[in-house]
Design goal:
Elements (H helix, E strand, L loop, with lengths): L5 E3 H12 L6 E4 L17 E6 L7 H7 L6 H6 L23 H13 L4 E9 L2 E3 L2 H6 L10 E6 L21 H17 L6 E5 L2 E2 L4 E2 L9 H10 L2
Parallel strand pairs: 1-6, 3-4, 3-7, 4-6
Antiparallel strand pairs: 2-7, 4-5, 8-9
Length: 237
């Protein structure tokens, strides 16, 4: 895998949704990142684990203009009401509401991911009318982190239409999302990517930090690092 690459978010998420439709989130799908030309008879290393990174958790100019200075999606997360009895909302990130564009925080994220055998952060990359949005998470945070070489990164084109997006938490709700089931899915995805010679050699995981869509690997009060431990158990072999 090269250090950087580009993907279309729309096409990728459509495939990811299809792969994870009958399972719990986070969802994962084998990916065309690398390994497509490895012969079936060759000894193959483990699949690379690629976590989608959503760069919404810092202050940036456009959000200041739309919602007021300093507003970002942490505010949605903190105020999310439960939609029905037993709906676990709001979520409580174990690290609190941190600034991902700060290289010190980015360094913590990189260390946590690498220690649990995640190989790549796949950053959503936004560019509208010739203007970039939310690039600070990558350019000011990740790329300036002292340990940034521990993790590869790639970019996924994400200029999808936001006008049709339903406000959090009034989005689709996935029931039965547990670390145990997620771990089984990781194992199945890794085995599939390893043994099928027609498929390339990475597994995408949705997502590292898509808190307001209910897809996250970062530690949270209810399950702690259980999702990360599941990844480590499968991809750390």
């Amino acid at each position: 895998m090269t250090d950087t690459a580009f993907f279309s978010r729309r096409r990728f998420i459509q495939g990811l949704a299809a792969a994870g439709a009958n399972f719990s989130l986070p969802a994962m799908v084998p990916s065309p990142v690398s390994g497509a030309n490895i012969p079936a008879t060759a000894a193959r290393p483990r699949p690379q684990a690629v976590a989608i990174y959503c760069p919404l958790w810092h202050r940036y100019d456009h959000m200041d203009a739309w919602h007021g200075y300093g507003w970002n999606e942490w505010e949605l997360l903190k105020s999310a009401p439960p939609r029905f009895p037993g709906h676990y909302q709001p979520l409580h990130p174990s690290w609190g509401c941190f600034d991902e564009s700060d290289p010190k925080w980015a360094s913590r994220e990189i260390a946590l991911a690498a220690d649990h055998h995640i190989d790549v952060f796949l950053f959503d990359w936004y560019w509208y009318s010739g203007v970039r949005l939310m690039e600070e998470a990558l350019e000011k945070g990740f790329l300036k982190a002292r340990n940034r070489k521990r993790l590869k990164f790639a970019l996924m084109w994400a200029n999808h239409d936001w006008t049709a997006k339903t406000s959090y938490p009034y989005t689709h709700v996935v029931l039965g999302n547990t670390p145990e089931r997620f771990g089984r899915l990781c194992k199945l995805a890794a085995e599939f990517a390893t043994t099928d010679p027609k498929h390339p050699f990475a597994v995408f995981i949705n997502a590292w930090n898509e808190w307001t869509e209910g897809s996250y690997l970062l530690p949270e009060e209810k399950y702690g690092t259980a999702y990360l431990e599941a990844i480590k158990q499968v991809f750390g072999r």
